[in-house]
Amino acid sequence: DCRYQGVDVLRTDGQVVVDISKTNCMVTINPLLVVRPEGLASGGLALDLNQGTAEFDAVATAQPKALFKMIGILSTGELDSLLFNGPVRGAAKGKVCWTDMTKSRMDATVKGRDLGFGLLNVDDYAFTVHMIGITNILDNIKARFYGGELHGKTAFFIASGSETNGSYMVEGAIKDVDFEAFIGALSPKAKE
Questions:
Q1: What sign does the dihedral 46-166-68-5 (CA atoms) show?
Q2: DSSP character for 101?
Q3: How far is Cα 79 from Cα 65, in angstroms, rounded to an integer?
Q4: For 39, left (φ over 0), alpha (ψ -120 to 50), or beta?
Q5: CA distance 66 to 75
Q6: 49, 86, 99, 140: least buried by Cβ within 10 Å?
Q7: How crowded is the C-beta side of 83, counted as CA atoms within 13 Å?
Q8: CA–CA separation, 138 vs 154, rounded Å?
Q9: Are 169 and 155 in contact (CB under 8 A)?
């Protein structure tokens, strides 16, 4: 048992290769296994410290917020409105450039059950994520909630060098939702 970045971990295993020379500054961990009480994450990671990139290929069933905190992404409140109450399975592959996000590329799939989103509860959900530079696209969104279904797509664009300037696009359709229960969940009384 140990803690990393404030996150409890039952076990970690990995093979670490460090390559430091006049032209290289690479840290590779492959294979990598992180075991937590609710699930695990496995895959590989290559950090190029000269280029400012992290290349990864991983699958996970561990709590997403815990994994993001360990990695150091989406851990400063961006996901506060999400409660991952049920199991989640994700897979991601890509390369992120922390010195120039326009050079980042990533694809992921996510599937889970029992998600709290603000005051709303989602029974199950699935979507794909495509990150191309500052453009983030969530498509093939499918969710069941309040007796009905949601299908859709969203994209958000992060202005380079700014946490406040950006834009987004949302399109979708809701079918057979119990509107009274849905609105009831949004009412001030539901907050109590």
A1: positive
A2: G
A3: 8
A4: left
A5: 9
A6: 99
A7: 10
A8: 5
A9: yes
159: helix, strand or coil: coil
Q: Is 153 strand, coil or helix? A: strand
Peptide bond into 188 cis (omega under 30): no
């409890």: which residue's tokens?
8
Residue by residue, pLDDT tens for the chain (192 residues) are: 889 889 999 999 999 999 999 999 999 999 999 999 999 999 999 999 999 999 999 999 999 999 888 887 777 777 888 899 999 999 999 999 988 888 999 999 999 999 998 888 999 999 999 999 989 999 999 999 999 999 999 998 876 655 567 788 999 999 999 999 888 888 766 555
Tell me phi and psi for residue 119, to 5 degrees.
-90, -5
Whether this prediction's pTM lies above 0.70 is answered by: yes
Q: Is the dihedral of CA 93, 41, 136, 142 positive or negative?
A: positive
100 vs 6, 76, 131, 132, 150, CA distance in Å?
27, 20, 13, 12, 35
Residue 27: what are its φ and ψ, rounded to 5°? -125, 120
Tokens representing residue 105 in the block: 């590329």
